[in-house]
Structure formats: structure tokens, C-alpha cells
């Protein structure tokens, strides 16, 4: 008998991928320009020009043995030093290179962190709607994922529900802001309240609770009013899982990091656990060329104004057509209320209008669909009549 | 409580890394040129010129969104198709793109494969001396690693011992040829005998046994006489774990693949298990730029004549000084008989002569030390008097 959990996981393609594959087929049938594919969270804006320049320079002018050689498992010291310095400057923290562990992107940041923290039978809490792989990652690490529904319509944390979900088994809480799929950003008040509640719970049970902040969309916040605090300044037992996939439009290159808050008492054990988990999972080191790259362009971003314009266009149009949309402050997702109770049926009906939308059920939150607007502005404009017709079909 | 297994794993640096760090300190004290560091298996020869040319071309002339975007989880179809075609041409197999799963290097190939195959309580057999991470990877996947000692002096498989180790719990056997740390290549007879024995055992127990061939050193075979058969032509339930780290001198870039033999009955389940395990461990896809790279240079190698010359120089000199060396046909390691019973004490004494050698104990095989000769020919020559003096100190 093979490992049935993993065989099953490999056979059931995620519904997002399923929809994407349907879209490819449909485009072949009726023409690329006639299908409005909002299924994937794949950046549509190219990497900033500094990426190309830095990659060219590294390849032309570095010693190949060093450039392509192993780095230490936690990443090249100079790279980690630069990143720590940047975080300190920007968020007034006191990290050093040895608080940073370079990874192959956000998924690796999460699996490594979870494998460092949890033991069989522990619980990991997250807020629904949530990125579906949190469940896969938590379960592989031996924990149960407990999803706490957000407040309806605002999609901020529902503290009464969170309180009820916390238990002596809670080892960690994963927060994801800006959120995939809701696009919501947790404001300062919300984050402070979350940290206070976790501290209180820890005090009561005597068990530490780690706050894992999954931040691939950190740079994709569109409204100047939004100033979410850096989690390390609010909570000692915090770990930031970062990825350059979205900010630098490098999702296929797998580069990111884990930053462990050195304010926590057991810092050295947690960091050691991360090193050990990275080793056991088979991540020898993050790709060296891309480590060297981010050491040069860590403060750059792709042109995110494209996403902001897409959001504004879509938000305005959908409002006019009678849709209810969760107020989105970041990422590149709109979470739109389904026009019928069953959001899977709604997403299915959308396909008749060649609109590919992902049912919220896949994110642990029925009644909504996710619209990934990391698409070309031209396609977005072409799709508006389809959104309109879909709404009218429900009148 | 954190995950103690991983915390411990992160705290205990491998003795190889420990020795490497000692070397760095020692070089700072007495000068780089006076320390003879044979500790790490880090390629010393640069990547072939085709690598630089292909990387430059990809970066200059590709669309950045596509070049740095996600590929499918198993890797870009065209890349997999090229690799399957190359394997077919070279080894007369009948693989297609969907037999190949691109990975972040050999370690990832192994952890993903093990997590696809094993269940809690299964056993994985390997042959000592062996790469120490096999134990870490097997245990994380839930299996026990059973090490079967090789024949003394020849370091070929000891079939009587293997027979005794096989049980109903045996899920997989990991073979590694050319071998790290012995440098030994298993010849055709040995491989055929291994396959026959595993088939016989499977037939008896009714339980499939998978043969995992860990082949990062496949291209590093120095003697024309050696023609090891491709494992897929001998055994249906075989899985090849490959990495371009050593052949293309790209160890830090993390690029390799898993090839699953489509001759096995349960092929689609095994491949699905690999896809599922890759997902659960947090490998979203292998780095896209390096996938595209290997699709262009899969048949190139770094200049391995440097390693062959190093081996010949060292072999001749050590023989003259009275050392006994396992006959090495590949990789870039010599396995040298310790001049005292305790090989740790021997490696410790070698440090007095500024020779950094790894005790065989770390590879599950005391009584020997590993000499990694992926070093500059100049350093190798400078080190010879130290090897001589070390031998003389035992007279």
C-alpha cells in the first residue's frame, strides 16, 4: 500500500486548477479573447526592470562556482543580513541575519514553520475564507486545521468565534493579510485585539501560541489609509512567512523567507526547529541565484498600479450591475457575493457567460466567489458585459 | 512543546558541516593555502559555458511573465517532454513527459518519493556507507531506515546481509551508484542480482518493493569499462531520483527530477502520490528559470576530467604512502581505510596535519574516512606531503 493520503492529494486536482484547465480547453474552442479567466492568482505584471538587470549582471559578472554553489541551509549570510536590515529599517524591529531563514517561497515558508512548531494532535487555527493549502500543510505536519469564520460582509476577524475555537491544543494561528481570497486587510485595531486575545489565552493555559503571518501580498495594499502594524511589534511569538512571488512577479522561481521574532524567549529553539524541518523536508537551500537577486532588489516591486486600476474598474462595474463585493484593500482578489445560495451553482452558471470564477467553498466559505483580477486590463474590460449579463440572468 | 525531532535536527549540525566550519576558522588563523579541506561534496569545477549562454539568452529574450511564472506542479510540459525523450534515447526506455516530475534537486526528489511510498512503520533499506540524510528523510516520512553493510574492501552489495534485512515491512530500497561516500559503482552483475532478489522477495511476501535509484553522480563515472545498466531496464518498480547539481555544477540552484518507471502496474497511483507529496511538503514547482535551462543543456556536463585527474593523483600518492583505498570508479570521493581502528580518532589526528577528512562513522561505516576530492588540483598537490606525514606518524 502506498501512502494513501498523498496519492489522494495528487489525484484530486484543486478546483482552482480544474477550472484553469477547463479555461485552457475552452479558449482553444472559442478563441482566447472570448474566455474571461479569473481563476488563478498568477501575477500578470512583469517583474520590475531591476530584476532583469540584476539577473544579467549576476550571470555575466559573478564567479559561476560561487554563484551556483550551495549556500548554508538557512541562506547566504549576506543575503539574510540585507533582508534583516531592510525589515529593521522599515518596521523598527531589531532582527539580525540569524533571524532569517531563506526559503523556496511562501508554501515552503509555511510547511517548514509548521513542521518546526507542531506535534501530532496539535491544532492550528486560521480564519475562513483561507488559502486551501493551509489544511494540506497543517495535516502533513500532524496538526488539525481549525477554521474560524470571519464576520460576514466585512470579513474581519470574528473574535467571539476565535475565542470559542482556542483550546489547550492550539499551537499556532495563521493570519493572512492582505487576504487570499477576500482581499481584506486587517487594520491596526483588529491586529492588536488578536494579539491581546492570544496573549491572554496563553497566560491562562500556560501554553505558548505562535502567530504565523503569511504575507505574500504585503506589498499589494492599495489604499494609503491602511496601515497594518508589523506583527513583530505586537506579538513576541510571531513568525513572518514571506515570499517575493507577488511583489516581484517571480512566482515560478520560488524565493522567500521566514523571519522569526527574536523577542520570543525560546527563539533559538524555534529557529533550530525551522532549520531541522527544512532539512527533513528536503529543502537543502533556497535557489542561490534568486537569493543573490533579492539581496539587490528587496525594496522594489512590480508595477502594482495595474492591479489597483483593475480593482477600481471591476469594483465600480460590479456595483453598478448589482453585485455585493467585500471591500478589498489589497492582494489581487475580489470576493463577490453569490447571486444564489449555492456558490458552486453560481460559478457554474458564470461559465455559460465564459466567466471563470472560483466558488468560495474552496476557501472554506460558501456563498461567495473569488475573482482573481491579476489579468490584463483589456481582458478585464472585455469581460464586463459578461458580468452584467450574468447578473441580469438572476432578475 | 515544539517539534523536538526537528529542533534537535536543527541544533546538531552534521559532522561534515562542523568540520567545514572548523576549516573556515582554521584558514583564517593560518592562511587559506595551508588548510587541506576535503570535507564537502561541493563541485569545484564551474558550470559548462552552455549554462551561462542559455541563462543569458533566457533572461534577455523571454517574456518575463512566462519565464518567471508558475509552471504546473509537476513541471513545465515541454521541459518534461525533453527530459523523457533524452532518457529514452540514451537508455532505450519508453517514458513520456508524464513520467517525469521536476524537483528542487536530489534531496527533494528523495523526500517527495519517500512521502509518496511509505506509511508509518514501513522500512526502507539502504547500503552502508550511505548519505546520512537518507535516515533523516526516511524518518520524517514515517519509515525506519535499515542500513545493510556492504562487503568490506570492495564495497559492493553483500547479498547475504541484504537477504537477512528484507522483511514484510520493506517498502523500498535506496541505491546510490556512483556512491557517496565510497565512490564505488555497482556493475551490471550486481544490479541484476539486486533486482532478482527484490523480485523474489516481493513474490514471496506479496508486497511490492520499490527500488529508488539516487543518481546525482550518474555522469561522474571515470572508467570506460564501467557500464552500469539503467535501473528501469532491470526492475519495473523503479524510481530514479536525479539532480543536475553535480553534472552541471549547479548545487545551489536546486534543480532535478523524479522519473517513475511506467512499466509498473500501479504507475498512476505512484505518480499521483508523488504529486500529492510534493504539494504537502510545500514544493509548488521547481524553479522555472532552471527548468527552462535544463531543457536546453540536459546533455552537457561540467569538465569532469578535473575530478578524474584529482582521483588519479590522489590514488597514486595514497598508495605509495601505504594507505588502503576502496577502488573508486565515480563520484568525487575516495573512501580510505583508517590507519587506526577508531576512524574518528584518525580524522582527529589528520587535523594536526591540516587535513580535513570525514570519519566514515557519519556514513554508517566506521574504519574509513571520506576524502572529497572536488577541490582545486593545486590544493590537492599541496596536500600530499600532509597525507604522507600522517601515514608516517603511524609507523
What would you say this structure looks like, in words?
Chain A is α/β, with parallel strands linked by helices and 395 residues long. In chain A, 43% of the residues lie in helices and 14% in strands. In chain A, the strands form three sheets. Chain A has a seven-stranded mixed beta sheet, with helices on both faces. A three-stranded antiparallel beta sheet of chain A has the order 9-12-11. In chain A, helix 3 (49-61) packs across helix 11. The longest helix of chain A has 18 residues, at 188-205. At the A-B interface, helix 1, helix 3, helix 4, helix 6 and helix 7 of A face helix 1, helix 3, helix 4, helix 6 and helix 7 of B.
DSSP strand tally of chain A? 12
Q: Strand-residue fraction of chain A?
A: 5-15%
Q: How far do the termini of chain A sit from each other? A: 53 Å
Number of helices of chain A: 14
Task: Say what the CATH topology of the largest domain in chain A is.
Answer: Aspartate Aminotransferase, domain 2
Please state the structural category of chain A. Answer: alpha/beta
Give the biggest beta sheet of chain A. 7 strands, mixed
Strand order of the largest sheet of chain A: 2-8-7-6-5-3-4
Number of domains of chain A: 2
Low-confidence stretches of chain A: none
Shape call of chain A: globular
